[in-house]
Write a structure and sequence with these properties.
The protein has 15 helices and 2 strands. It has 294 residues and is mostly helical. Helix 1 packs across helix 14, helix 4 crosses helix 11 and helix 8 runs antiparallel to helix 11. The radius of gyration is 26 Å and the shape is flat.
Length: 294
């Protein structure tokens, strides 16, 4: 069977049309998912500026301003609650827990992934199984420990407890990253005159950037939104984090300060989103850059 120029042209046009339709479908799907993802945040932004009469009236459009927007609910959040104290406590706990997690999980993961210990694989599985234990089962023994140390109603109670959750899964995660980096790179650095520690810090760690970022995000996020331990150990307003301070002080019985609740969510989400986007390019580059390219 022979193909003339007309048939070839038709086939090419059909292929181009199919390609264009596929691209249009891809873009429409991406737009749809983006709108679905951004809807809760956009509704929260609108709600935080709504007046109470506007928000609770059934006749008003809940997705737009039927009355002039107001800042009174944001002012209430800052003036009538310890919101800034909650933010400060969350940052302190999150940063300290993240630092402790990295300090313990990095050497643990390196030892289990690189030193080829006989019990390394079993130890790695055991560490991961520790993470699978529900926090509610450890609540009573952890409470006994906190009371014995006398650190209840302090941020130290959370700083002590949270690493028991973050270190196991972070060690397991970093083990996978260490195993994905060829051992030849580290050995070559040691042949060139570096010590093992120098090879790790100057050669391996830059390639570990995606794993380190993942651990930082995981540890800080868990410290920021954990609720059970934070509510049980710290009941005083001065030592609450955002996860417990916002709902306990803005939900009083059956009264919900809804606009102030939304304000608290938005004011925390925006800086986190900005910080994440600032590191997004390096995060993607760390995943896509070949290890031997270093």
């Amino acid at each position: 069977m022979t193909w003339d120029s007309t048939n070839v042209a038709r086939l090419r046009e059909k292929t181009r049309r199919r390609h264009r339709l596929g691209r249009v479908g891809l873009y429409l799907s991406a737009i749809g998912f983006s709108l679905f993802a951004v809807f809760p945040f956009s509704w929260a932004v609108i709600s935080m500026f709504k007046r109470s009469n506007d928000l609770y009236s059934r006749d008003n459009n809940p997705f737009w301003f039927n009355e002039p927007p107001t800042l009174q609910h944001i002012q209430y959040l800052f003036r009538e609650t310890n919101y800034l104290t909650f933010v400060r406590n969350t940052l302190i706990v999150g940063l300290v827990v993240t630092a402790v997690t990295l300090a313990f999980s990095l050497p643990t993961a390196y030892a289990l992934a690189r030193l080829r210990l006989k019990w390394g694989e079993r130890m790695g599985i055991a560490i991961f199984l520790v993470y699978l234990i529900p926090p509610t089962l450890l609540f009573i023994p952890m409470t006994r420990v906190i009371n014995f140390l006398g650190i209840q109603e302090t941020l130290w109670s959370l700083i002590l407890v949270y690493p028991t959750i973050t270190i196991p899964i972070s060690s397991w995660l970093l083990m996978g990253y260490f195993k994905s980096i060829p051992m030849d790179i580290e050995e070559q650095a040691m042949v060139d005159g570096y010590s093992r520690l120098g090879a790790i810090t100057r050669v391996v760690m830059p390639l570990m950037f995606p794993g380190i970022v993942a651990v930082i995000v995981f540890a800080f996020t868990l410290s920021a939104h954990e609720f059970i331990y934070a509510l049980s150990f710290n009941k005083a307003s001065a030592v609450k984090t955002i996860a417990t301070g916002v709902p306990t002080e803005l939900i009083r019985g059956d009264v919900f300060f809804w606009q102030s609740l939304q304000s608290a969510v938005v004011l925390v989400a925006i800086p986190i989103a900005l910080v994440f986007n600032a590191f997004l390019d390096r995060f993607i580059a760390g995943f896509t850059m070949g290890a031997v390219k270093g």
